[in-house]
């Protein structure tokens, strides 16, 4: 790999790569890119057909990178300028559709020629080495029937039939199967080998041998060698491999079905109001700030905030939840959701690549392009697989040539060697893990579960402990003031005014509850003159000349405030699952607020579901112990760690990890971000802050805790499929290659033909992809 100069700026580019069929293909393209001067890093994904490259634009250009890829024998292109995740996906889908159409045309031709060549082979004399082929035994009676129906067919000399077969075979090799040979040659020039090498060498050897027998048949006959040809084997192998390629490409296209369905949620047009009149415009023409009109039954085109009207919105595409959500002025709507009941007018706030839907598609794309650690084993094997298979084929030829009785030893040796080359299938190993990752992440997106790649997917399947934050995770996260107790002589409205005025600067959910209570009570708030948040404890500030402290009882005690008069009240509130918030003015405790945060309706069921999955569930919260234990008892959590500051949440997660357990942290707030990042798996609720979501490996769009159990089930099912795929891929090659070499022939008389090998290889790769597609109905 070329070392790029560290002092030059770098850019990131994505190339669309076509024609890759196995892990060796993507590996060769990646190595070629990495060797190019100016390339810092490159990652090529077989399933998405994309190459992600970090390069130095002052040294190399995207067009030059395209040339590097095309020099390896594959197609490449740069996405259109300004394209986003949706445009890239649509381009990839079109490319795969074109590829599928071209494969279908080649397949039809190759199958027709293969059938014709098998029918003609008995007229050209079936070689002794092929008499064990079940397909040839089926064809022989048909040939005899044709001889009796059309006597002239039998009057042609076998050598004439061999020339006819050659004429039929050449178009198959030079057109239908041309890409196998061009890619094999490109690999050879780069001192590499892949699946195309095996096919090209196997069919090429059979073709060259057959041409020699056709051109010099008389010479070989004069020297006691019976002329035999393998045209039907060449045609049938190419046809069967094209069948496998076609089914595999179609199945790969199905793995991206989830993204296509998400893209399909976008309407093509939007109805907007400009200059007092309504216009229907293309979706791409909607701008931030436009007033968008959505009638009942229509899809919301972009993200926005409701200005007029009330309606119910079906957000199942976003959250996976079937129940509609009521919307009124001030509420947010998301592009791709369905307006059910009333007409609404909303102001567009996010359009194009900035919408929630576009970001979901981008995250799913990135996840599908990632690698699971379990893939490393398959990659290591794939790197040496083809050279090892070629070595085995050479050894097979030598052994058969020496051991088989003359004069057919050369024919049998060639047939066995070709069979070894054809039956070997690196494709199955290369597809075993990426196909499962693609289908699983797509399925997760459909259920409102955004998994950010193969690595967290694999870790989730190994989880031992799930740590749950309380506020906003187990509870609704929208607390309200339920109790207000003030000291003797303190005016309740004044008390609330001071507390709410200082809290209006805070983003904490408890602060929001205090402010909302004051506003609903008609209390006029004032801008604080001074404000300082103390994470996990409370707030210091000054309002109209008064020093105000708002926070936990312990925080006020640390600040030198006497809290004893309200100690009993604080305990009573805690026992009722209310969070006590103390307020001090000018060093004196003036009252307590009891804030309740109702438990989510699904939290108890979610905890039970996680426990049924043999996971330990722990509650980790900065709230006081009394409140935490009441909530934990309500939802069925046995282990509670309470009164934990944000930095200690990180320590508690690490303490659990230190015991050797794999830990997931589930949270929604800024204070959860360090713990989310430190956990083996960070799971953020979609209703949480952007910081929490960015720190997490998985995002539950709906904010429903049941999503945690669903994602664990999905990941476990995915890992099971990955292991099944890898087992089949390795077992197939470990068993198939020796059988193809003829190890069972001495004892049982079992010997495979090249045609049988081609069938087995096609079944191998297609079966792996088909097994992965079962995940479309998972979780």
Q: Layout of helices and strands, plus pairs?
A:
Elements: E1 11-18, H1 23-35, E2 39-45, E3 50-55, H2 62-71, E4 75-77, H3 85-120, H4 134-149, H5 151-155, H6 158-176, H7 178-189, H8 195-215, H9 217-222, H10 231-255, H11 257-263, E5 269-274, E6 277-282, E7 291-294, E8 303-308, E9 311-314, H12 316-319, E10 325-327, E11 332-333, E12 338-339, E13 344-350, H13 356-368, H14 375-403, H15 409-423, H16 426-432, H17 434-446, E14 449-451, H18 454-460, E15 465-469, H19 470-474, E16 480-486, H20 492-503, H21 509-520, E17 530-534, E18 538-543, E19 546-551, H22 553-558, H23 567-575, E20 578-585, E21 588-596, H24 603-612, E22 616-620, H25 625-635, E23 639-641, H26 646-658, E24 663-667, H27 673-678, E25 681-685, H28 690-695, E26 698-700, H29 706-741, H30 745-748, H31 754-773
Parallel strand pairs: 15-22, 15-24, 22-23, 24-25, 25-26
Antiparallel strand pairs: 1-3, 1-4, 2-3, 5-6, 5-7, 7-13, 8-11, 8-13, 9-10, 9-12, 14-26, 16-21, 17-18, 18-19, 19-20, 20-21
Helix pairs in contact: 3-6, 3-10, 6-8, 6-10, 7-8, 8-10, 8-15, 10-31, 11-17, 13-17, 14-15, 14-16, 15-29, 15-31, 16-29, 16-31, 17-29, 17-31, 18-29, 20-21, 23-25, 24-29, 29-31
Question: Could you characterize the architecture of this molecule?
Answer:
- Helix 6 runs antiparallel to helix 8.
- The protein is an alpha+beta fold.
- The N terminus is likely disordered.
- It is 52% helix and 17% strand.
- The protein is elongated.
- The strands form 5 sheets. A 7-stranded mixed sheet has the order 14-26-25-24-15-22-23, with helices on both faces. It has a 6-stranded antiparallel sheet with strand order 6-5-7-13-8-11, with no helix packed on it.
- It has 31 helices and 26 strands.
């Amino acid at each position: 790999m070329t070392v790029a100069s560290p002092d030059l700026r770098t850019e990131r580019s994505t190339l669309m790569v076509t024609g890759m069929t196995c892990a060796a293909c993507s590996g060769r393209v990646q190595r070629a890119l990495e060797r190019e001067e100016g390339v810092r890093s490159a990652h090529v994904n077989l399933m998405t057909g994309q190459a992600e490259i970090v390069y130095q634009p002052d040294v190399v250009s995207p067009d030059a990178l395209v040339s590097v890829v095309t020099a390896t024998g594959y197609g490449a292109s740069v996405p259109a300028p300004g394209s986003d995740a949706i445009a890239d996906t649509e381009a990839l889908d079109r490319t795969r559709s074109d590829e599928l159409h071209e494969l279908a045309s080649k397949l039809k031709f190759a199958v027709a020629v293969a059938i014709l060549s098998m029918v003609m082979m008995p007229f050209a004399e079936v070689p002794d080495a092929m008499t064990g082929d079940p397909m040839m035994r089926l064809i022989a009676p048909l040939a005899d029937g044709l001889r009796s129906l059309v006597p002239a067919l039998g009057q042609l000399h076998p050598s004439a039939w061999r020339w006819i077969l050659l004429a039929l075979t050449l178009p198959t090799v030079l057109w239908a199967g041309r890409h196998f040979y061009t890619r094999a040659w490109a690999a050879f020039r780069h001192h590499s080998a892949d699946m195309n090498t095996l096919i090209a060498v196997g069919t090429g050897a059979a073709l060259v041998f057959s041409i020699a027998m056709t051109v010099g048949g008389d010479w070989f006959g004069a020297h006691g060698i019976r002329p035999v040809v393998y045209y039907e084997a060449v045609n049938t192998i190419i046809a069967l491999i094209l069948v496998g390629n076609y089914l595999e490409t179609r199945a790969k296209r199905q793995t991206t079905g989830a993204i296509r369905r998400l893209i399909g949620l976008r309407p093509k047009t939007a109805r907007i109001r400009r200059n007092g009149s309504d216009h229907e415009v293309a979706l791409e023409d909607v701008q931030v700030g436009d007033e968008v009109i959505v009638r009942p039954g229509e899809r919301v085109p972009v993200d926005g905030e409701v200005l007029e009207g009330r309606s119910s919105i079906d957000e199942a595409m976003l959250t996976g939840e079937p129940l509609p959500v009521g919307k009124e002025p001030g509420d947010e709507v998301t592009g791709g959701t369905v307006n059910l009941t009333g007409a609404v007018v909303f102001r567009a706030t996010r359009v194009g690549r900035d919408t929630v839907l576009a970001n979901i598609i981008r995250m799913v794309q990135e996840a599908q392009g990632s690698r699971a650690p379990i893939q490393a084993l398959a990659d290591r094997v794939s790197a040496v697989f083809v050279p090892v298979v070629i070595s085995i084929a050479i050894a097979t030829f030598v052994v058969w040539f020496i051991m088989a009785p003359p004069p057919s030893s050369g024919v049998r040796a060639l047939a066995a060697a070709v069979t070894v080359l054809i039956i070997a299938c690196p494709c199955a190993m290369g597809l075993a893990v990426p196909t499962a990752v693609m289908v699983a992440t797509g399925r997760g997106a459909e259920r409102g579960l955004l998994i950010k790649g193969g690595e967290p997917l694999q870790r989730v399947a190994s989880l031992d402990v799930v740590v749950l934050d309380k506020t906003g995770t187990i509870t609704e996260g929208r607390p309200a003031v339920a109790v207000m107790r003030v000291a003797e002589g303190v005016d309740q409205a004044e008390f609330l005014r001071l507390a709410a005025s200082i809290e209006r600067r805070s983003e904490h959910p408890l602060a929001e509850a205090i402010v909302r209570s004051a506003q609903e009570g008609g209390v006029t708030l004032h801008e604080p003159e001074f404000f300082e948040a103390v994470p996990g404890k409370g707030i210091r500030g000054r309002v109209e000349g008064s020093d105000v402290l708002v926070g936990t009882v312990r925080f006020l005690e640390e600040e030198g405030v006497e809290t004893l008069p309200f100690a009993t009240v604080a305990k009573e509130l805690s026992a009722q699952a209310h969070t006590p918030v103390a307020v001090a003015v000018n060093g004196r405790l003036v009252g307590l607020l009891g804030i309740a945060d109702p438990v989510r309706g699904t939290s108890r069921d979610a905890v039970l579901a996680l426990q049924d999955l043999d996971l330990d569930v722990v509650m980790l919260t900065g709230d006081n112990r009394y409140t935490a234990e009441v909530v934990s008892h309500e939802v069925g959590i046995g282990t509670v760690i309470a009164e934990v500051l944000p930095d200690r949440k990180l320590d508690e997660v690490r303490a659990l990890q230190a015991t050797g357990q794999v830990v997931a942290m589930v949270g929604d707030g800024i204070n959860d971000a360090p713990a989310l990042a430190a956990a083996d798996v960070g799971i953020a609720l979609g209703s949480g802050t952007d910081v929490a979501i960015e720190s997490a490996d998985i995002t539950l769009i709906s904010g429903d805790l049941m999503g945690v159990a669903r994602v664990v089930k999905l990941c476990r099912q995915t890992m099971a499929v990955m292991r099944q795929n890898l087992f089949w891929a390795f077992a197939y090659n470990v068993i198939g290659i020796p059988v193809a070499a003829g190890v069972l022939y001495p004892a049982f008389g079992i010997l495979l033909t090249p045609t049988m090998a081609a069938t087995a290889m096609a079944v191998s790769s297609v079966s792996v992809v088909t097994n992965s597609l079962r995940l479309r109905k998972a979780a």
